[in-house]
Amino acid sequence: MRAAVVRTFGGPEAVEVVEAEKPEPGARQVRIKVAAAALNPVDAGVRAGFFGGAGKQIGFGWDVAGTVDATGVATAWSVGDEVVALDPGMVRPVGTHAEYVVVDTDAAAKAPVTVDAVHASTLPLNALTAVQALDLLELTAGQSLLVTGAAGAVGGFAVQLAVHRGLSVTALAREGDEELVRSLGAGHFTSGAVGAGSVDAVLDAAVLGEAALEWVRDGGAYVGVRPGAEPASVRGVRTNSVAVTADGARLAELAALVDQGVLTLRVAETYALEEAAKAHARLAEGGVRGRLVLVP
Asked: Which fold has domain 2-123+265-295?
């Protein structure tokens, strides 16, 4: 099968599409014939060697939408099931940017039925990150939340999920993105500084760190999206960061919210798998609203 990999760290030109061995599912695993797989900033980090693995072949891709085409023992899935899944991993020979991928059975969820596979592939990593970050904040309906980077993939999901939970959401994004984030449900918008101590919590998808922490009231909460990089606690503010984990049950809930119209899936552009380097180059240019998606 074909897979997009990097064998020498570098820029987009370092991305190669190679022949790899077709994986076989073990116990409590399923093999998915990939229909679409989103490209995320973590893939750029892998390509540049940010996570290590020098001298190895490293595959790209965490998100996948496709069809179960083989199963191991002890799985509830059947061949032909349409699924989405998160397959996390920084340094492994092949990721989801391939024709086939094997995932744990409890990492997969039934794909949303109201969207195509290209759109469905944008759900797992970013929506799971958003919902797991919101869980860490432990907010209740009526409390105020500031989402930084609200026009991005994680930030956009965070805005919609927070509004769905009854939170009062302020979106921080560029001026040109106000219409977008308001369409996602944000009740308030800012493109600049926020008053010190003015919100109950911050979900810092833009990784602003200490600057965003200043906007949280005493005793509030801060969650970042870069594991281990959250600022130190001040003024009794709880600080934490989300390290996303695969969770098929939670992913199924998110897929249901897509079908209910609560979550919007945004695709910027699609590329054939052979064009993986071109997709990386587009990601490196920045300013992408929605995900770039590879289609084998």
From this structure: Quinone Oxidoreductase; Chain A, domain 1 (3.90.180)
What's domain 126-241's architecture?
A: 3-Layer(aba) Sandwich (3.40)
Domain regions of the chain by residue span: 2-123+265-295, 126-241
Please list the residues that pair with 70 across neighbouring strands: 31
Q: Max CA-CA distance within the chain?
A: 56
The number of residues making up the chain comes to: 296
Rg of the chain, C-alpha, whole Å? 19
pLDDT per residue as tens digits for the range 87-106: 999 999 999 999 999 999 99
Write out the two tokens for 1.
């099968």
Share of the chain above pLDDT 70, in %: 100
Q: Does residue 240 sit in helix, strand or coil? A: strand
Cα–Cα distance for residue pair 249/252, rounded to 1 Å: 5
Torsion of Cα atoms, 42 then 39 then 155 then 149, to 10° = 70
CA–CA distance, 281 with 262 (Å, rounded to integer) = 32
CA angle centred on 86, ends 183 and 59, rounded to 5°: 115
What's the Cα-to-Cα distance from 40 to each of 59, 288, 291, rounded to whole Å?
A: 13, 11, 7
For residue 113, list its beta bridge partners: none
Distance CA 142, CA 169 (A): 10
